[in-house]
Amino acid sequence: MKEIISNLDFNAELSCIECGANYPLSQILYRCSKVGCDGLLDIKHNLRALKRNSSQQWQSHLENRLKKTSLPFSSGVWSQKEWVLPQIKDEHIVSLGEGKTPLIPLSLWADDLDLAAVWLKQCGISSTGSFKDLGMTVLISHIKSLLAEGITIRAVVCASTGDTSAALAAYAAYAGIPSIVILPSNRISTAQLVQPITCNSLVLSLNTDFDGCMNIVKELTQNKDLYLANSMNPLRLEGQKTMGIEVLQQLDWEVPDWFIIPGGNLGNVSALVSGMSLLFELGLIKKLPRVCVAQSSQANPLYLSFQKKFQSYEAVSAKKTLASAIQIGDPVSYPRAIKALEKVNGVVEEASEEELANAAARVDRYGMFNDPHTGVALACLEKLRKKEVIQKDDSVVVVSTAHGLKFANSKTAYHEGKLELKAKYQNKALDLDANLETIQKSIEDIIS
Ligand SMILES: *Cc1c(COP(=O)(O)O)cnc(C)c1O
After folding, report:
1. Integer Cα distance of 62 and 66 in angstroms
2. Atom 14 (ligand 1): residue with closest C-alpha?
3. What tens digit of pLDDT does each residue of 147-165 get?
């Protein structure tokens, strides 16, 4: 097989999703600066140059990269470097070995659902325990290259529902760049809060919700030497998009009928679709999978808009949910998400607290350890299957976005019966005397 032709034409630039204006990647810009536009920006690759390689060349190129054992190219993200940040110098890449996470077939659950196949993409098996690592490696690497060009950046800043701050803090600390994380107080798990603290971030806990924190970060980062690390910044999405591509590689380029992904700020759904579109353009896949965005009923602006066929959209005030990382009422990337879903005939489903907790617990019984956001996605699969939107012969990939260990408190509360919902799959530890007879009796009562 011929090696891929790799040359400097593989450039990427910023491009407005509304008016199409282009800007160099080295410009610090989060929204289109054309008068009256203010659109979100994407990263546009030179498809013509990329297409000079055949789909077979790209496949074998990726396969070779995946054989690497040392960083940065052993990273799942950087194995796709030409599709992510083609111009970056290798020495500026800041990687903690993200990506290359398992894609687990759940055949017992597929049987339960009367479904051809279902896989769980375990993105939470990662340095900071969520799929946010995929995007953060790209953002911090880009900053490192800007710093090398002599551009002044004093600190990187984000608003977060927990996972973004954990990822930002770790990657920034590893690169020796100061970070500031702005969190809504009392709304993130202890495991998430401790992560930026240990990395020595400046942690600001505010008496507002995520949307309030996000507004403050937008103001702060008007000052160009404080760099915005939220997914409004398309560099994050370039890394996130590698997840779907990796799934296709794991499925030997056999396209699943569906992806289901939990949605909060809504950057990830568009990243997923952009990865699929790239594979389609380059001829690695022959059709696009459909996508379902799974939202918590407590924070469901996209779901409500989908009910109106996306004819209108309104932000909501997000209410408390176990799926705290997606407790977002005014998602920055909703225009991206709507465009992405329209492209792939996508749908939006929602799940209540009881539905998400029971779905997570149900699939935990097959040896998984699901976080509540994945619970939302799992519940939405059950609902779409019941409605026959997802059909018997379909194959489905559910994106598991965080590690369940980050949410041990709420999972424990479920099994102790301490949540205000009907815990269908409760399994409480029995407190017994250390007495053989009582123990034998308990075993006999339970094990048939
Ligand atoms: C960020 C996050 C999401 C949602 O991703 P968005 O791009 O904000 O829609 C889902 N689950 C977890 C665990 C997350 O951290």
Report:
1. 6
2. 325
3. 999 999 999 999 998 999 9
